[in-house]
UniProtKB/TrEMBL annotation:
GO biological process, one term: rhythmic process
One Pfam entry name: Pkinase
SUPFAM superfamilies cross-referenced by the UniProt entry: Protein kinase-like (PK-like)
Family matches, as PROSITE patterns: MAPK (PS01351), PROTEIN_KINASE_DOM (PS50011), PROTEIN_KINASE_ST (PS00108)
Species annotation: Mastacembelus armatus (zig-zag eel)
Protein name: Stress-activated protein kinase JNK
Key words of the record: ATP-binding, Biological rhythms, Kinase, Magnesium, Nucleotide-binding, Phosphoprotein, Serine/threonine-protein kinase, Transferase
GO CC, any one term: cytoplasm
Family, per entry: Belongs to the protein kinase superfamily. CMGC Ser/Thr protein kinase family. MAP kinase subfamily.
Main location: cytoplasm
Protein kinase domain residues: 24-323
Compartments in which it is found: Cytoplasm
GO molecular function per UniProt: ATP binding; MAP kinase activity; protein serine kinase activity
Amino acid sequence: MSEAEGQFYSVQVGDSTFTVLKRYQQLRAIGSGAQGIVCSALDEVLGIPVAVKKLCRPFQNQTHAKRAYRELVLLKCVNHKNIIRLINVFTPQKSLEEFQDLYLVMELMDASLCQVIHMDLDHERMSYLLYQILCGIRHLHSAGIIHRDLKPSNIVVKSDCTLKILDFGLARTACTNFMMTPYVVTRYYRAPEVILGMKYKENEHDKLKTGQARDLLSKMLVIDPECRISVEEALNHPYIHVWYDPAEADAPPPQISDKQLEEREHTIEQWKELIYEEVIDWEERNKNGLMKEDCSGTELHHLHWLSAVLCHTAGGGEVSKHS
């Protein structure tokens, strides 16, 4: 890689060894899952806290390798206020032959929706969170991206009430008509058509994942995907339409660099080469690892409520979920 060997150092985090750029200090484990292990860190170059994700055994088999490639490609192309932002990508290995570890650096959030939903939320906050989920889903769907694993642990929130969707290892690009795999999505968050192994129609699956108010909930949980409320209709529902901002809800769709992503079938070594090329491409286009420009448009109201509640419920400790 273009980074000199002396710019890396190793630190033990739980049972895993992180070998990261020296700009990332104060690593602390904050989450883990099937796709990777995540630490919080201080980026001394940008002067901000970040989340550093080490992908788990990305080249163990073809499935792991394809998921790693998919997550990297999709994160590189998506730029929306309600989708987690990729800040940097790197590997400590210096050549394709040595390439084994892949690290993704993203924004550090304060809590997952798993924690937030147990807080005392009023309708203003619930509707704002729901609005942001729908904006993120709509942005993904506009590019034919289907998340496939949208659940509270894959949705994170900052103390100003900004919400973001993360974890794209299981996502699909809907450029082909395929059967949805029923065991990909966490059981309690599967749509009926997924459980029944029915053909996946456009982007119906993700729409089932959200809903707070009774009327909107009843429309979003309709069994028949043909009759289920669309994302666009939900965004215009009175419960959340007060937040509507075209710059967020109608943001231009991301341009996917690999249009045949889902049709690709490669050996592990071929996937490794593709991922390595993506890392090199990132380095060339982001020499300083600088954050992509925020395309959020007009800022909405900041609701500084989460940090106070977190301090009360978690003893003041920082909580995050990025795995």
